[in-house]
């Protein structure tokens, strides 16, 4: 695995260990993209944020 893959793996492991902090980061990133695009891609950012949350929360429900 290359450096980028190693970094992604470490980030995922850290997110699993600190899901509350990771969720804050995902929410913050989603809002920033929505603000900068005028909510033009809101459905896509919602889908991406949900996928990111599932990657570190597993089956735990999200409380956005």
Automatic annotation (TrEMBL):
UniProt xrefs under InterPro entries: Antitoxin_Rv0909/MT0933 (IPR028037)
Taxonomic superkingdom: Bacteria
UniProt xrefs under Pfam families: MT0933_antitox
Disordered as annotated region, ranges: 1-64
Protein name stated in the entry: Antitoxin
Species, as recorded: Streptomyces ziwulingensis
């Amino acid at each position: 695995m290359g450096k980028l893959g190693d970094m992604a793996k470490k980030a995922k492991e850290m997110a699993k260990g600190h899901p509350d902090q990771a969720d804050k980061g995902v929410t913050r990133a989603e809002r920033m993209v929505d603000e900068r695009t005028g909510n033009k891609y809101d459905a896509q950012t919602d889908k991406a944020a949900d996928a990111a949350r599932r990657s570190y929360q597993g089956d735990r429900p999200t409380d956005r």
